[in-house]
Amino acid sequence: MLPIIADLYTPLLAICCALLIKPYWTQKRALCFVFALLLVTLFARIEVFFGWWSSMNANFSSHTAVVMVLVLGLLRVRLKAGLMAWLSIFPYAFLMTLLDYHSWFDVFSTMLVCLPCYCLFPRLYPQSNFS
Question: Burial letters for 1-38: b for 16+ Cβ neighbours within 10 Å, e otherwise?
Answer without folding.
Answer: eeeeebeebbeebeebbeebbeeeeeeebeebbeebbe
